[in-house]
Amino acid sequence: MEKKQKLKKVIKAWSKGEEKWKFNPNLADDDSAIFERTTDISKRHNRQNARHTQKPEAHLADLEGVVVECKGRAITVRTDDGNYLCKTYRSTISENSDATLVVVGDEVVIKPIVQPTEQALGEGLIQQVKARRTKLSRSRKRETNRSGELEHVIASNIDLLFVVSSIFEPLFRTGLVDRYLAYAEYERITPILIINKIDLAEPGELEDIRRIYEPLGYEIIPVSARTGIGLQELKDKLMGKTSVFSGHSGVGKTTLLNQLTGMDMPVGEVSEKTLKGLHTTSFATMLEVKNDKGEIGYVIDTPGIREYGLAFIPREELRHCFIEFRKFAPNCRFPSCTHTTEPDCAVIKALEHGEIAPSRYESYLAILEQAIA
Ligand SMILES: Nc1nc2c(ncn2[C@@H]2O[C@H](COP(=O)(O)OP(=O)(O)OP(=O)(O)O)[C@@H](O)[C@H]2O)c(=O)[nH]1
Ligand SMILES: [Mg+2]
Ligand SMILES: [Zn+2]
Which residues contact 203 (CB under 8 A, 6 or more apart)? Predict the structure, then answer.
């Protein structure tokens, strides 16, 4: 087809709003449609809300709540009065210095416009986003991000970071797991490794993983969403806390959460060709998990990620994010040793003596290479 004709067709389809031209999560490595700088949002909202936003009714008092879903610009907030579908607007105030305005887990104050009923969500405006106690972030590629922000927050106010992997389909990747663990050390949140799909494990595979991570003090929970192995132990860990499930696409985050909550959220197929997941979950959502005793835990399901960038962690800090280095680093000749090319490096010596796992050291080098400062 002629190039011009093709373009015409695309524009026509677009203006009709055909499904195929809408946001396609499989193409987006970067699930950040709403995550823009406050200033950008304010600019646009100044234009748009001047026309469209209903005036809040004066008699409805402000409410405190927690963001449980961010779907494009539609933000669902859970309050004691029920759930409200909210938007940010020109007067939204954030207590956070990073550029990501609202994420799942954020504690917010909303101005209700319409109260919820049994059939429908309420409606409201987000007045204030409170300071985040903790967050799960990743760095963003400058080319694919309009606002130019370097750090993109995925979820906030979490007590536990569950790094979800599978033993097969897709294969366990030490590089990705080590990135999460380094981040957890940097952010000072407790990480727990979930190894899913152990129904597919070959003898010895799980032991190989345990041998790397358990001596470092990291907890591993082997599970199978398919057979139910390990799910009770996992559920016990979730009670009384807010957790996030993060990991590669297709490892089974949503399948696990369906099992734990009894819900029926869409789960993906693993491509036979690449044995990789196909990015089924496209928005973060916070879910409630209950146990037999009536206790509750909250878990945030997140979209699978392809690459976990940590470029915002300064090189100087990264050295301390691999916990096994801490024991040896004081014996390096230079206090500022980066454990790469310096003479008399105790970390490299430990690596040579088999006291540090080669895969961990490789992960360190890979992250160090991408660090910006
Ligand atoms: N054999 C086996 N397959 C599983 C298990 N858990 C999940 N799967 C399958 O793995 C595939 C992907 O599962 P999802 O739950 O969509 O994976 P996800 O991590 O949520 O993926 P994204 O939403 O793309 O990040 C589905 O076909 C599941 O049936 C398991 O324990 N064993
Ligand atoms: Mg999913
Ligand atoms: Zn050193």
Answer: none
